[in-house]
Amino acid sequence: MGSTSAHKNEGLGRRDVIKRSAALGLISVPTMGFLSACASSDSSGDKKVEKGKATKANPLGVNETAPLEVVIFDGGFGQQYAIDAEKKYNAAFPKAPKVKHVATQKIQSQLQPRFNGGTPPDLIDNSGAEQMDMGVLVGKKQLLDLTPLMDAPSMDDPNKKVRDTLRPGVLEMGQFDGDPVWIMYYAYTVYGVWYSQTALEKLDAEYPEDWDAMLALCAKAKKQGIAGWTYAGKYPYYLPFSLYPFIAKIGGREVLDKIDNLEPNAWKDPAVKAAFEAYYELYQKGYILKGTPGLTHIQSQTEWTKGKALFIPNGSWVENEAAPTTPKDFKMMVAPPSGLDSSDKLPFGTIWASGGEPFIVPANAKNPEGGMEQLRIMLSEESSKNFTKQVKSLSAFNGGTDGLTLSTAMQSGVDSLKKAGDNVVNPRLQDWYVKLQKEQIGVAGIGEMMAGRATPAEAIKKIQAFADAAAKDQSIKHYKHQ
Fold first, then answer.
1. pTM, whole model, 2 decimals?
2. Phi-psi bin for 262: left (phi > 0), alpha (psi -120 to 50), beta?
């Protein structure tokens, strides 16, 4: 989206390393008016185009003369990477009209009437503040099963299926119940605590590996007029990007699984209490940049790149998004959350990394084969490298960095994944229960605590009540870790 040595959780011991599991990475607050409208629409609209003949060159059977419409979220990653991939589609199907490319930050606003009318685009980058609720779309059968894409031969090696070219966990993230794949997460995001190596060097400091060291560094920075932390105060669901893996580090991956599963009293786990108290201590000791609760994600990133705060919880899109204000000598880096103490169940290095930038093909798309083919092109090594060079982020394609000179931020992300090994956690609240995660846990719970308007105990009580209500709400589809 305190726990110093005085708050050790003696009941928590160490455990075997965890295995990767599926997850999500994007941020949004959907409008309920859209969700109900989208969910209630069963219009088939205009008919689908006739499917083409499947060949080695055209394994998905794309209609070679049919139009294709792609809608891209014009956010931190921009849109040029998609335009470049669309050119390859145009070259592959010269008899078809040029791909209709639409870029917008208003995904929900622009697509609501089209979903209602049964005439959605063929491929959508469902991201941003107006992202559509993935759990609702899947639950109401609004999306096309992308299994044919996953089983199609990859662009680079016809003997290898697309599914076999993806980074660990990406395919599973698009699955909600059983085998169907509803979403293709194109970016591969590393979440964590972001900082400037230059700023730490000026303080003669290293990244802190436990909470006592974190507090000591924040105290040292404060004496120099620098805040320890800032965050997207208006969108405090950024805080879980470091808070959730911190909880997992303290209590184990099973704590996050229970939270995802909406199990009774999951939020009352000692690991949650310890993590909340630790973060609250940042507020109590004055280590949060003044005015942070009123800042947007862009404003908080700008204050951070200006050197007014050392740390910010974020995802790896921040490098591209904050580029206009980042000094050349900033040396942007990402690290896993600091641990609590020696009682932590998982080692330092435990991090949240998962697919991001979710692409979907609507069930009522006119040219669904074309939408899937566009994704197949994007999942080639060439398109993946182009994405990485342009937006400074890894893609879902497992590779695509050979021969590239990586920035300090990207290299630190790659290094963090290597260090984490199997200790990669992937909470699923963000795609299973968007309103719960963003508005309730993020804004009404964690946000209020970090602004000093609620104690950790009060925040946990409130969040548990929200989770219990969601578990009992029969109007929403519920999901569980398998």
1. 0.77
2. left
A 10 A CB-CB count for 276 gives: 26
Chain segment 33-73, per-residue pLDDT in tens: 444 444 444 444 458 999 999 999 999 999 999 999 999 99
Amino acid symbol at 220: K
Two tokens, residue 480: 């569980």
- Decide the pairing of beta strands 351-360 and 309-314: unpaired
Q: What is the pLDDT of residues 284-342, one digit of tens each?
A: 999 999 999 999 999 999 999 999 999 999 999 899 899 999 999 999 999 999 999 99
H or E element that contains 353: strand 351-360
Nearest C-alpha neighbor of 465 from the set 435, 445, 449: 445
The answer to whether 336 and 192 are in contact (CB under 8 A) is yes
Separation CA 90–CA 135 (nearest Å): 33
Q: What DSSP string describes 96-132?
A: SPPPEEEEES-HHHHHHHHHHTT---SEEE--STT--
Q: Where are the alpha helices (DSSP H) in 379-426?
A: 381-391, 408-420
**425 Cβ contact list (under 8 Å, min separation 6):** 18, 21, 23, 244, 245, 248, 253, 256, 350, 351, 352
